[in-house]
Amino acid sequence: MFSTLRRAMFLRRFPVPAKRGFSSKFSDEINLRVLDELNQEMQSIFGAEPPATMDYPELNSSIGSLESTKPESSRQYEQPPKVVTEDISKLTHVGVSGEAQMVDVSSKDNTKRTALACCKVILGKRVFDLVLANQMGKGDVLGVAKIAGINGAKQTSSLIPLCHNIALTHVRVDLRLNPEDFSVDIEGEASCTGKTGVEMEAMTAVSVAGLTVYDMCKAASKDISITDVRLERKTGGKSGYWSRGE
């Protein structure tokens, strides 16, 4: 009965006009005004807004066509944004609320731990020949870089904020001139017996050694690249043995 009365009122007040050459935009504006006036009249009679779903197809069709013409940018905000949650349980340096934290290693066992890292410094032929002949103005490039790398490993916890201060038992840094690509190949190894690994110490060693090579050679060329800083192997701890490519 409610829907029949509504339809009768609509047809009484707004007879269907003869077809004319209205543009789609103009027709949409008329439909919106008609629906708005009809809703206001029904609310004044029954004391509440008419239900959103109409029982007669012509108005349903009009509403559907108007909704489909709304810009995509306005429709996308009608749905509440999705809350994306990620599993961060493996990120041990991140707390439950996302803040940075230092890992508590007091419950871990003391084990023998080692790590091997490497990097490459690409010099170019001219600088390579100067280093090979030990003719750089600052002196022995490879010798100074070797000492810098060892010292860098010992300073890792001062450079990397959340690293533990580890009592290293051994640090090795080797530098080799590679004539195939006119580079310096750097390899660094760190060892300790403790509760956490020495991967960062090994990678810091080769990184600092590579930076020192650049510093020793920058007067001859600024076009020097430090590349491929990476961990190659580690042993000890809960995760045990790991090697790149295995």
Automatic annotation (TrEMBL):
UniProt pathway annotation: Cofactor biosynthesis; molybdopterin biosynthesis
Catalytically driven reaction(s): (8S)-3',8-cyclo-7,8-dihydroguanosine 5'-triphosphate = cyclic pyranopterin phosphate + diphosphate
EC number, UniProt record: 4.6.1.17
Region feature Disordered, mapped onto this chain: 49-81
Gene3D superfamilies recorded: Molybdopterin cofactor biosynthesis C (MoaC) domain
Domain Molybdopterin cofactor biosynthesis C (MoaC): 102-237
Cross-referenced Pfam families: MoaC (PF01967)
Biased composition (Polar residues): 59-68
Record keywords, A-Z: Lyase, Molybdenum cofactor biosynthesis
CDD domains assigned: MoaC_PE
Protein name per UniProt: cyclic pyranopterin monophosphate synthase
